[in-house]
Write a structure and sequence with these properties.
It comes from Streptomyces levis. The chain is of the alpha+beta class. 46% of the residues lie in helices and 10% in strands.
Length: 420
């Protein structure tokens, strides 16, 4: 892909290079049926497929379960610091994926001892969250949200419920006062920065999020409380205010949108699959079963960008060059036929890769806290609106045109109106 001077070479890239003519473009509405895309890539290319990102930037998509585990377990070969990328000379300033791959001084891009230091602070801060207290707070948030639409007999659950609840939940964990106008503005800016709609300015929203969290860190430095932000500031590792802000943004972003889509995808399953529609109320199939099945089959984070090769390596029969970008195909790995004999994909265990793997996986106990928020959201909704049904045919539900996050555009439902 480049000569020894680092300047991209002219002409057709050699076979095995991600930019080879057989590479498949990722992204766009045409890939809404992502599972079919992964099957096609696996059949044509094996466990590691050449792909093209936006602007036809070459990369590798790691599809195999063993291969994803190998990449995420060998940081000395496939590291997180994106400054290693051999494609930076070809990346335009307005590249759509730049917010996800542009190096930032946050825990996401640190390595080695520095990553252990930063991740350790987050782990210890999250361990201080009382899961029963979080469940109680999320139940109160859920009831407040349900009250806002219970009298109408219909609503669109993604916007009124699934996205709103984890945003409020994670901000409560971080010490933001619930119900304040300030918090509500931050919830809205989080939504815009992570999932902008038409007419929204995600960059401006992201700047406002950073500014408000900077202010929160200053407030907690002066008056600590029983919250994640204060525990990060008081940790013996001695993070600076700027480091805490950067890592808070990472924690909140990782908690909000994936958990929102986990809730939405689980509600879709409960409302469309007869196994659950018939049995959940009878107790034979639990909400927990549905939540776990979604992590296997409709995981919110489909693909994660990425890892960068530290040196030339071999992976899945491919020659990976130093500086190449590897996209972790979490959804494809979860449905790898090698781990599911006879093409049967079950939800009987929790060995999925939905929270990634290795040193850079979601820090413990983040998956447990996400489960508390998602489970509370689903169970509270089903309890208060027991006759909840889909307001459109299941085939009319559409997925967001994204190969990164798997979530519904909307989830319209109807129910018996109630005065709460």
């Amino acid at each position: 892909m480049s000569d020894h001077s680092g300047v991209p070479s002219p002409g057709t890239p050699p076979p095995g290079c991600p930019a080879h003519a057989s590479a498949v473009r990722l992204g766009g509405v045409e890939h809404q049926q992502s599972h079919q895309l992964y099957r096609t890539l696996r059949r044509e290319h094996g466990a590691v497929a050449p792909v093209l990102l936006d602007n036809d930037i070459p990369a590798w998509l790691v599809l195999g379960y063993p291969e994803v585990c190998y990449v995420t377990s060998h940081d000395e070969l496939y590291a997180r610091d994106s400054r290693r990328w051999n494609q930076w000379p070809n990346i335009p300033e307005d590249w759509p994926l730049l917010p996800f791959v542009g190096y930032q001084p946050s825990v996401l891009f640190t390595e080695g001892a520095e990553h252990q230091r930063r991740a350790g602070v987050i782990t210890r801060a999250l361990e201080g969250v009382d899961q029963f207290e979080l469940a109680s707070e999320c139940e109160a948030i859920a009831e407040q949200l349900i009250t806002s639409f219970a009298g109408s007999g219909e609503t669109e659950l993604m916007s009124t419920y699934a996205h709103a609840l984890p945003a409020r939940g994670v901000l409560w964990m971080c010490g933001m006062p619930q119900g304040s106008e300030d918090t509500e503005k931050l919830v809205d800016d989080l939504r815009i920065s992570l999932d902008a709609g038409e007419g929204d300015d995600p960059v401006a929203a992201y700047m406002r999020v950073g500014a408000r969290l900077t202010q929160l860190v200053k407030e907690k430095r002066q008056a600590p409380g029983p919250d994640v932000t204060s525990r990060m500031l008081l940790d013996d590792a001695g993070l600076s205010d700027e480091e805490v802000v950067q890592d808070l943004i990472s924690v909140i972003a990782a908690a909000q949108q994936p958990t929102a889509n986990w809730i939405g995808n689980t509600l879709r399953l409960l409302l469309t699959d007869e196994r659950f529609a018939v049995n959940v109320s009878g107790g034979r199939v639990s909400v927990g079963d549905a939540l776990n099945e979604v992590l296997w089959l409709d995981t919110p984070t489909q693909n994660f960008i990425g890892r960068w090769a530290v040196r030339d390596t071999q992976l899945g029969g491919r020659h990976i060059r130093e500086g190449d970008c590897l996209v972790l195909g979490l959804a494809a790995a979860n449905t790898d036929p090698q781990i599911w004999p006879e093409s049967h994909v079950g939800a009987e265990n929790s060995a999925h890769l939905s929270f990634s793997n290795g040193e850079h996986r979601c820090p413990y106990p983040a998956p447990l806290l996400a489960d508390v928020m998602a489970r509370t959201a689903v169970e509270t909704l089903m309890e208060h609106l027991p006759d909840l049904v889909l307001d459109v045919a299941p085939t009319e539900l559409t997925w967001r045109p994204s190969v990164w996050m798997r979530g519904l555009m909307s989830l319209p439902v109807r129910f018996t109106p109630s005065v709460r």
